[in-house]
Amino acid sequence: MSRNPLNDLGQLGDYLREQRQSARLSLRQLSELAGVSNPYLSQIERGLKRPSAEILQQLAKGLQVSAESLYVRAGILEERPDTDDRTTTVPAAIAEDPYLTKRQKDTLLDVYTSLVGSAARAAATETTEPTTAVAPKASAPGAAATTTPRPTRKPGATKTTTKSTKRSPKE
């Protein structure tokens, strides 16, 4: 199936305009934020010019959207068939991590679920199998770093300081 590049440019321009308007930015404001000239940005929005990946990245920063979404709309990248794969891969990675205890896995899944939604927990329970907990090794990636405890002063002890000697000005 061949895609019409002019149609892609129009769709990209429409998407950029929608994003700009939803961010309540004028054409001039976005052009300043992105470091793109006002006329060039106008031509992109009207579907007359095809922006480079670098320009799209600058626009994405100015609009606070992902550059990937602009690349897909511009036809630079193919759209991922499964755009919500993070709900299956993150819980699976947590479940399969040999350095996490059951309690740590449950806590991580609870935090992830609170951020992403209940679909993450459902996916995690499908992939979680009974595992034996392994205590993290000191050199294992992700293991907590050990710190040396700070010495504490005894109650009533005062801090010892050294007196500095003042030098007399040279004559």
Number of strands: 0
- Structural class based on helices, strands and sheet pairing: mainly alpha
The profile of the biggest β sheet is: none
pLDDT averaged over residues: 74
| Count of helical regions | 8
In CATH, what is the homologous superfamily of the domain at 5-74?
Answer: lambda repressor-like DNA-binding domains
The termini sit apart by 93 Å
Q: How do the helices and strands line up, and which of them pair or pack?
A:
Elements: H1 5-22, H2 27-34, H3 38-45, H4 53-63, H5 67-74, H6 86-96, H7 102-116, H8 118-127
Description:
This protein is mainly alpha-helical and 171 residues long. Among the domains are: 5-74, 434 Repressor (Amino-terminal Domain), CATH 1.10.260; 86-127. It has helices at 5-22, 27-34, 38-45, 53-63, 67-74, 86-96, 102-116, 118-127. α4 (53-63) crosses α5, α6 (86-96) packs across α8 (118-127) and α7 runs antiparallel to α8. The longest helix is centred in the first third of the chain and has 18 residues, at 5-22. It starts with a helix and ends in a 44-residue tail after the last helix. The model is unreliable at 129-149 (pLDDT under 50). It holds the Pfam family HTH_3. Residues 119-163 have a biased composition (Low complexity). Keywords: DNA-binding. Residues 16-70 form the HTH cro/C1-type domain. Residues 119-171 are annotated as: Disordered.
Q: What are its keywords?
A:
HTH cro/C1-type domain-containing protein, 171 residues, 434 Repressor (Amino-terminal Domain), Cro/C1-type_HTH, TransReg_Diox_bact_type, mainly alpha, DNA-binding transcription factor activity, flat, 8 helices
